[in-house]
Predict the structure.
Amino acid sequence: MEVSSPYVSLSLFFLIIAFKFLSKARTQKNLPPSPPVLPVIGHLHLLKPRLHRTLQGFSQNLGLIFTLRFGSRLMVVVSSLSAVVECFTKNDVILANRPRFTMGKYFGYNCSSIGASNYGDHWRNLRRLMALEIFSTSRLNSFLSIRRDEIKHLLRRLYRNLSRDFAGVELKSKFSELTFNIIMRMIVGKRYYGDDDKELSNNEEAK
């Protein structure tokens, strides 16, 4: 079904009006300078493959502290060493809070996990529990046999691949599988990646 041009023009008109209204409300805030922004996408069209070069160009034109908007999210980029030190020393508590995303609401128990909750008593308690119960030396040593076993699995797989031919081996995926297998065995006691029939059945059960 074709959409008539008056409806399209009217929709674009209201979209531009809404964007101008929101931009006017945002300009009342004391924000750092920013490049010209487009509706809806913000500054996403300005990002190039070499992101650090792009940000360096912005800092040369706008100053060491500038604002970017990625869709509906506002970002402040700090390129000055002295400003970064001030952010992480004098204003570290103010800047320690995290944005509330929809993913954090539904997968992070209403933003109450350590990766999604704001800085405060709850976050400090979670950090203390992780330091004492999860990442303590005794806890890590208790999983030493798992790490050794998974490293042996990886070495055996590499040896089998090399015994067939001397082709190159892509190690990035191998190390990712190694890390994920260690995590899965620490959590549920089963491997996720494997080669033989027994391991394949465990893979399907883990998935």
